[in-house]
Here is the input.
Amino acid sequence: MAKKRSHSIDFKRQVAQDYLAGEPLHSLARRHDLSRNLIRIWVRKYEAGALDEDTAAAALLQEDEARIAALERLVGKQALELEFLKGALKHAPRQRSGPTSAITGPTVSPSQKDAD
Here is the structure.
């Protein structure tokens, strides 16, 4: 399977500019070892202004801010759950007698049926 390559915004912009300047799509694709469809995509993005550094930086910033907001919501939810569980633990009745080991478990009260 072919290794996925990543190209810089400057490279994509340069390839799109070369195409728009009149260089044939086939020769550009062969020279840079790219698919012609990928070059067409870059040209469309270049014409739409998506290959500007400011646009790319703004998109990256927006993605980061969305991720931060999602993580902050998760932390808030976990803090709320933790406070709830602490409160529940404080108000839970405690058994003063009997074993506290998890291995032995609580003592079993004998029933009349067992005595017979």
Q: What stands out?
A: The CA atoms of residues 72 and 83 lie 16 Å apart. The longest helix spans residues 53-91. The chain has five helices and no strands.
